[in-house]
Each structure stands twice: as C-alpha cells, then as structure tokens.
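For concreteness, we quote verbatim a single protein encoded this way:
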Amino acid sequence: RFAHTTVRSSVVNSGSKAQSIGFNVQIPKRAFISNFTMNVNGITFMGSVKEKTVARNLYAQARARGKAAGIVRANSQDLETFKTEVHVPPGSNIEFELHYQEMMHRKLGFYEHTLFLQPGRLVPNFQVDVYIYEPKGIANVHTPNTLGDQFVFSSFCHQAHVVFKPTLQQQKKCENCTNTAIDGVFTIKYDVNRDSNAGELQVSDGHFVQFFAPSNLSPLPKNIVFVIDVSGSMWGVKMKQTVEAMQAILDDLSIDDHFSIIDFNHNVRCWSEDLVPGSSLQVADAKKYIQSIKPNGGTNINEALMRAVQMLVKASNQGLIDPRSVSMIILVSDGDPTVGEIKLSTIQKNVKRVMREEFSLFSLGIGFDVDYDFLERIAMENRGIAQRIYANHDAAEQLRTFYSQVSAPLLRRITIQFPEDSVSDVTQNRFDKYFSGSELVVAGKVLPSDSDTLTSFTTASAALLDITMETEADTTELDQELAKQQHSFTGFARQMWAYLTIKQLISERALAPTAVKKRKITQRIMALAVEHQFVTPLTALLVESEDARERLLADSPKDPKHGCCSGAQQKASDVPHSIFTRVFFFFSLLQGITSSAVLPSVDNDPHFIIHLPTSNMDVCFNIDSKPGDILNLVSDAGTGLVVNGRLISSKQPHKGKLSTYFGAISVYYEPDGISVTVHTGGIAMSDGANSHSFTWGATAEVTQDGVRISIVKNSHVTVTVNNHTQVMVLLHRVWKKHPVNVDFLGIYIPSSNQYSPLVHGLIGQFSREPEVSVHDVRPGVDPMKNEATMEVKGNRLQVTRGLQKDYRSDAKRGSAVSCWFVHNSGKGFIDGHYSQYIVPSLHSFLHAP
C-alpha cells in the first residue's frame, strides 16, 4: 500500500541538427519525488534531496556561472508535471529516470494507483509494469479499459502483475497514422484480504505499520448542516453543478439522519432553523429549496459557520440527536469572505472557539479564487478535511464522490495503542471518525526487544456498543518473505513511516500558534525529508553532474493562491493563471537555450520588478497608493517623454484592503504633441487637434510623426517613440461579474530604451543602475523565503526573497521571476518617498525627488 514508481525514458537525437529533447511526467500531488537522474552523452546527473536553502545556494552558485536551469512552479487538478528539456547536438543519447513514492489511500473500498501515459509520439519500446505484493493476499484487482486491450494480467494469492505493452501498430490512432493513441489514465484499483476487523499489523526493517479498515458494522446516524455559498461568484456552472450534486446527496439521507441547509451571501438564510429527520418529505422540500437559489451578493463565511455550529449545539443540548451519532458541517464555497468578518485568522479563531469536540468541519473549495490554505486549516483544526473541487463539467461528480467518502460513518473515537516499551515515534493514533470504505493507518519504530511479536490494541465506539480489538504480528516473518520477492519494496515500512510523519508535521506546521513552534516543526520536517530523500515544500532536489559543475533544481510546488512576499497578493485573471501545473527545468547544455530578458515592469497590485543587468539581479517592490492617484513611471525632460499610470481599485476590499491596479497608462511625447492613452476599454491616440480611438478587438498598427502604436488583439499594445524607446502595455481581463476583481493593465519597459541624463521616475531612475550588494542571506521567519541585507544608495535594507510574475509570454498564468523584495513601498531603493512620484495629470512631467 506504499507505491514506489520509476519512470524511465531513453531518447536519441537522430536528426541532423541540434534540438531540445524533453522529458515530461505527470505525478499525483500526494506523491513525493525521491530522485531524478539524467545521462547526456555519458555525462551523468545525480539527484540528492537537501534543505531548500542549501540547495538554492548551491544552485545559485551554478547559475552565476551560467551552468543552471530556471524554475517555474504551479498546480493543476490532482497532478504536478515534472518537465525537463535538454538542448543537444545530433547523435546525442539521453536517458532520464524519475522516482517518486506515495501512500495508497483507501477510498470507497479500493486502493487506486494511477499513471498518466502521455508519450506524445509513437514509442518503439513502450512498456508499463505494475507489481503488487500483499502479505495477506489480494482480494480483487480491476484494470483499466481506457487504453485498449493490450494488457497482460497475472494474479496469484499474494501478488499481481499488470503489463501494458502495445506494439507500434497498436499505438497508432489509425492504421496509417503517425501520431499516438496513447493519451490517457492508467488506473489500477485493488483491495486486500482482511482476516478480522482488528486490522493488519506489518513489521519490517525496524518499523511497523498498522492498517485498520473494519467492515460489516452498522452505520452511525449522522447530523449534517450543509453550508452553501450562494454569492455572485457562484453564478453559472458552479451553482448548477452544486445544485445537481445536492439533489443526489439529499437522496442518500436516511430517516435516522438529521440535516439542515444554510445558504449565504452577504446575508445568511436557513432552510430550517432546526435539524430535521431525513424523511422523504423533508428531502423533497429541501431539494425544491436548493433549486430556487439565485446567486448574488457578497460572501459572509463567518456568520454562516457560526449559525451552523449554533444549530448543532442547540440540537445536542435539547437531546434531539442520538448521543452515538456523528455531527458534521459541510462547507461549500468558491471565494474569500467579503462581508462581515473578513480577516481569515479571526474567522478561524471564532470557529475553533465555538466548535465542540464531537463536531467536524469539512471544507470544499470550488475553483481557484478560494483561499484553499484557509479552508484546509479551518477543517484540520476542527477534525475534518478539505478538498478542492475543480469548476468544470464534472464538479457535481466531484462533490458527490467526496460526500460518498463521509456518508457512512462506522466508528467514533478510535484509538490504536501499543505497549509503551515496544514502539516509539508513533504517528497519529487517535482518530475522531472512521468512514466505511476508508482506512486508518498508524506507523512507528519498533524498539529492540526479546519478544518476536508486536501487539496492538484498538478501542472505538460503534453504533450499539464500545468495542476493543487486538492484533499481533511476527517481527521477523515479513522481512523474510519480502527478501524472496523479486519486485517487493523492502524499505516500505520505513518510508511509509517517514511519509506519514512528514505529512502530519506539515499539517501541524500550518496550525502552529507561534513562530518558535513553527521553526521547531520546520527543522523536524527538513531533517526527515533529507534523511528519507523526499522533495517536500521545505526541501529541494539538487541534480548535479559528476563534477558538480552543472546543476538543476527541483522544488515542491505550492498552492497557487499566494503572493511572493509580505503584503503581495496575486489577483486572478479570467482563467486563474495557476490552473495548470508546470514544474519546468530548462537546462542549458552545450549550446544551451537562451531565455528572454526580464524587463523593468509594473503589473498586478501594482508590483514593480526592476532588472539590474550589471548586478545580474532583479529587485521588486509594491506601491501602496490610493485609487485615482497618478504615478509617474518615466519622466525625461531631455527627450520630452513622459509615461504615467492612473490607479483604480478592486470592487470590494480583500482582507480589509482595497487592492489597486493600473486602469490607464499614458505615453506623452511632447516634441510632437502626441499622446497615447491606453485603458481597459481601448486605446486613444491624439495630437492635440485630432484623436483616433481603437478597440482591443482588432490587431492594428498606426504611425503618426515619430510615434507608432502596434495593437495585438485582446492582448497588448506596444508604443514606440523615434524607434529607440518602447513601452508595452498588457491587458488583463477578468470575468465581468466577478465580485472583487476588475480589468487592469500591466506595463513593461525595456532596459535598452535610450533616455537623456535627465530621466527620472519610478522606473526611469534605474536607467542609471545603482550599485547594489546583497549579503547576509539567511532563513526568514518563513523558512521558504530567505531574508538578506541589501546595501543601495547609502541605505541598508532588509529584503525578502520571493517570486513575482512576468505576464508577457503567458498573459493568464505568467512566468515566475525570482527577486529581492523591498518592503515599505520601495523605501530606500527608490529615490525619496513614493508619494513624491504622484503627479496631477496623465501628461504631467515629474519634479524629481
């Protein structure tokens, strides 16, 4: 039940020219990458997991020599994509090998192992082998039919082997096709034999794993309050899919269950103020109520959850529910709070304060606008789990599947214990609930002992009585059996213990009440991850050539809804830029691959990125100004050029603050009296006497005197002055009915622009690159973000390492730019105070600070 997956690929550049050879593997999010090796023309690159700070410093050294790769990280539905490209000459041989490990989670009665087969071309030797070994025996195995019938399947009592080996002809989409038909999911579902409800105890390599999955028990009655977000952002497919799912979920309720429905936007409404039995009459009435919901308004999560808890407390105090029943709240939401209490930490504290120990909260976040970290924290802290629901055509099925996993509670208050002198470092062994078709897993280390057996004791509350169960295992027998198996994973117990421990520590870290506690947990995670070679959010995989001169770096992806630095917030575009996972490694070997330069830019909220070519460094800062303010970006009295931007605000506050963006950008060239004003509704060009307007809906190019504008349909406009100065303005569109976000503009100005010595402005001043030194690099309060001291313009600044977005090549998702973040609106890095760059009109020149 612990899978070790190896993906190998051998490629030959048989062409007559150098070309990029790629290796692209999708892996489950719950998996940890454990190694990656690459051999290019006899040069071997070996991977090793290190603390993230150590790995990044080594990587930075290689990058400074031009011997390293770039990184972009993001997330997708249930996957991460590992992708590397190597630029090699003709005749080159390249071999890739990726290893990752994961624990199989039992859901709805099955373990599921999924491989994503997308070779992208016909492969002469394509083969998949899956080996399963279970000491107690395999009860059943289901193989897929989505990829055709080219399978060889063999199964014995304790092991199974599935082979998928299509010939070249079988891989073809049609008889004469040259493209592959293999583009799908290879899924194997299986379950194991169980001797008794007491569970299965396995001991191997000085570690133990206890699997507990009883069946044939009567379900416990359940009390459910469904809390459904019906704010304006739920309009359309999200609400339609939620209503469809609720119809099926309500049909699943029995007469022994009690339920109610709370729907909320800026107001909170209860279908019933009290819990009611799940009778056919009540269910029918609830279904009608759900169908009548019309999404609109804001999001008041705090009051909705308070009302749900009050409903459960009232029913419990009045003795209206079975004392052996299970009480839960299921929250379905697609966005952050915008009404009432909007501070997430306060909402979290409020819910924790009123929730009783016997209640659980399950959080379902629809889409990517929702702060999934918040939903996960609030669920974990209240004995539940969170799950992201992807807002696509099968969202209703995702909701129904989640509900199916929690719809049949069989046990409460489960404790799995061992004699104190027999084990140590035990993972979580107390569980609030056990649901039918799932499994509870406990692991730990086995202490040296004269005994050759290990015993576990399990206690739990069932529907009618409290139960106690006992099971034992021989401490040497399993290792002897594994040694006989050709394809067994002999270190599984040790790695599973580390996997479980790290996952639980990551959860504890998210809930740590103090910085000291968080640091201690962080140190434990990093030590375990390095020892067991897991790429986690706090470690990285450094891949080095044998002489350690060439390096690649692989980080674990983070959840997309995060800014780079303190105070930074990434706003979503119409399709959130982090919907598709990519972990890119572009490794330049031999001739290499050149990457585009980073331009001084302003985008999003508004985030400035200043590229310093001489220092080979990117520095970023935010400007925290007011809506309506006009900021000067470039002011060059010597050439008569000025570039200004007017700020607009989001529709509603986010976390107590109105976000600001550029809503209009003006480029004014005084010698010809020509101005170009770009706003989200269109582009205007004027010479003072005549004005021409253009929409974003068509590609066009217009030249007047020394000024040329080039419009790319619904994308960007480039303003060129006298062929030596360029300004690119990028359009960001969002959903028109989005309750918070608005359309906005980003601006990119090349460092190669030619100005006079008089140039200034928030961006213009850096045409004269200041001397910048960064030293004393150290772990920050957040270990994932280094801090350092920057010396610039006679100032010593405390800066933070982070990521900002460059949206030129990908307007929806953007590409990551690693930079040193200067706090307090760039104070000390820019000349003077940011307020000195506020000008009275879009054509105003700056009086330099």
